[in-house]
Amino acid sequence: MNLTMPGERTVWPEFFVLLGPDYAGKSSVLSALSLNGWQCVSCDNDFVRPECSLVNDLRDSFISRALQGIGESYSPDFVITLLQTSVVYLRDQVMRVAPGRPAVMDSYYYKILAKCVLTGLVNEELFTWWRSFPQPRRVIYLDVEPETAWRRSGEGARLNPFEYYGTIPTRERFHRFQTDLRQLMVKEVGTVPVSVLGEPDSVDQVANAIQQIIRRDDAAELGGTVPAPGAVRAGYPAARAAVAP
């Protein structure tokens, strides 16, 4: 399959992926980065361009209608196809960022693919295509504990069926799903370098740490001075250089 649209450049820009479990705070962090002038790509409402609002409509329809109709009204392949629109949108948008400046993308296909596997929505042909997409320079993983995520969800009040096992959102089903989700996302990342940030005290703190990680990579690539690891991980006693399997 052709990865580009007519008239678009074929050289992929540098990009980083911000990954993490549900309720890790990625949207808040991306908003902070965006306010600081960084290029951010996401399927969240605040980041989808107005002329691309169909992406929001399809995502909302997936949650509110398609998930409940799997096996009765809709086939698994049909439902995965709805999800694929978000994956392709992310890929297309990163092609349009300004050259010479790195972009930070929300989750890429890693999280959607992992959730598909956990919920039994499997189509290996589509997954193989997603995995053929260009890979980021680095993944930055926000490592939030399931119990923290549970509290942020209003103890289950704000969950959707794509965030827990079964039909009823309980703490145990949410914890298991998020734990398994982490393992599958790590597996999907593969050999891409990973930096892990533990639970921060503030959104600004994690946004600053991400900027330092990206600048460190830029300096290393250009052969300049690389900030000490302690500077990158300041305030993150749980931060690690890579995600443990």
Model description:
The protein is an alpha/beta fold. Mean pLDDT is 85; it is low at 224-245. 44% of the residues lie in helices and 9% in strands. The chain has a five-stranded parallel beta sheet with strand order 2-3-1-4-5, sandwiched between helices. The protein has one domain: Rossmann fold, CATH 3.40.50.300. It has nine helices and five strands; from the N terminus they run E-H-E-H-H-E-H-H-E-H-H-E-H-H.
Quickly name the level 1 CATH class.
Answer: Alpha Beta
Per CATH, the architecture is 3-Layer(aba) Sandwich
The number of helical elements comes to 9
Can you tell me the CATH topology?
Rossmann fold
CATH H level: which superfamily? P-loop containing nucleotide triphosphate hydrolases
**SS elements, strand count:** 5
End-to-end CA span: 32 Å
In terms of structural class, how would the helical and strand content be classed? alpha/beta
Count up the domains: 1
Shape: globular
Low-confidence stretches: 224-245
Helical fraction equals 40-55%
Content of β-strand: 5-15%
Rg over C-alpha atoms, rounded to the nearest angstrom = 18 Å
Report the major sheet: 5 strands, parallel
Mean pLDDT: 85
How do the SSEs run, as a string of H and E?
A: EHEHHEHHEHHEHH
Q: Strands across the major sheet, in which order?
A: 2-3-1-4-5
